[in-house]
Specification:
Elements (H helix, E strand, L loop, with lengths): L2 H11 L4 E7 L8 H10 L5 E4 L10 H12 L4 H12 L7 E5 L1 H7 L1 H11 L3 E4 L8 H9 L3 E6 L5 H10 L4 E4 L12 H12 L6 E4 L5 H8 L4 E4 L1 H8 L6 H17 L1
Parallel strand pairs: 1-2, 1-8, 2-3, 3-4, 4-5, 5-6, 6-7, 7-8
Helix pairs in contact: 2-4, 2-12, 4-6, 6-7, 10-12
């Protein structure tokens, strides 16, 4: 059983939902990333989604785009992100780490090489926005060979036949994008999300996480009622962006504790 599967199983026994914050590796500076990861866990994160900085994102809104730009100014690439995960694993061997990014850096490294290096570093899952399920069977096989889960996005417009195709290749959990648009877009329609999550559950037993549009504790609480995991990205990155070096850790911790309390209430 993978760390992701084990975490969901443990949470289900406790009747709790997973809280998965997102941060961009290298933002605001590479020296802060591992400390931020530990802060997230100590403040209530069950898993961490770690963004791989990329110059031409297609799913990220302005907040996360700016985070990537800040990280890229410090020359943070995929190799550095894997090194950060490896450093994190020296003192945390339990918390699942999911890399979120794009195909280009993986292709540059080589898909098979990336899968092995990710596994060796302690990565548990990979979400690659622009690897369509119709064309990524070989890559997914490499991930699974090395014990890394393949996380896929589902959207409000994904048709049942394509959901089934994705389900057949996915492992760990499914990530439902709660709205049409990019990260940090308008507030989500909780009733629409509830209907879509219910439809997806008829096609799979995989846990379902919901993200894109979870901007405050109240929304997180409502999403937790219908999903297995709540993913908070742009709000978390915005908190990083608006913090100084002196209050960065305390601000991120405060937001995490607020979200944790809301989800558990």
């Amino acid at each position: 059983m993978s760390r992701i599967q084990s975490t969901f199983a443990t949470l289900k026994q406790k009747d709790k939902k997973a809280l998965i914050p997102y941060i961009t590796a290298g933002d605001p500076h590479p020296k802060h990333t591992v400390t931020l990861m530990h802060t997230l866990v100590n403040s209530g994160a069950d898993m961490i989604e770690l963004g791989v900085p990329f110059s031409d994102p297609m799913a990220d809104g302005p907040v996360i785009q700016r985070a990537s730009e800040r990280a890229l100014l410090h020359k943070v690439g995929l190799r550095h992100v894997l090194e950060m995960v490896q450093e994190f694993r020296k003192t945390d061997t339990d918390t699942p780490i999911i890399l979120m990014g794009y195909a280009n850096p993986i292709e540059a490294m080589g898909a098979e090489s990336f899968a092995k290096r990710a596994s060796d570093a302690g990565v548990d899952g990979v979400l690659t926005v622009d690897y369509p399920p119709e064309e990524s069977a070989e890559f997914i096989q490499s991930l699974h060979t090395h014990g890394v889960d393949s996380i896929y996005l589902l959207s409000p417009t994904t048709e049942p036949a394509r959901i089934q195709l994705i389900v057949n290749q996915a492992s760990g959990f499914l990530y439902y994008v709660s709205l049409k648009g990019v990260t940090g877009a308008a507030n989500l329609d909780i009733n629409s999300v509830k209907e879509r999550v219910a439809e997806i559950r008829t096609l799979t037993n995989l846990p379902i996480g919901v993200g894109f549009g979870v901007r405050d504790a109240e929304t997180a609480k409502n999403v937790a009622k219908i999903a297995d995991a709540v993913v908070v990205g742009s709000r978390m990155v915005q908190t990083v962006e608006q913090s100084t070096e002196e209050n960065l850790i305390s601000n991120v911790s405060a937001l995490m504790r607020e979200l944790r309390a809301a989800i558990d209430s």
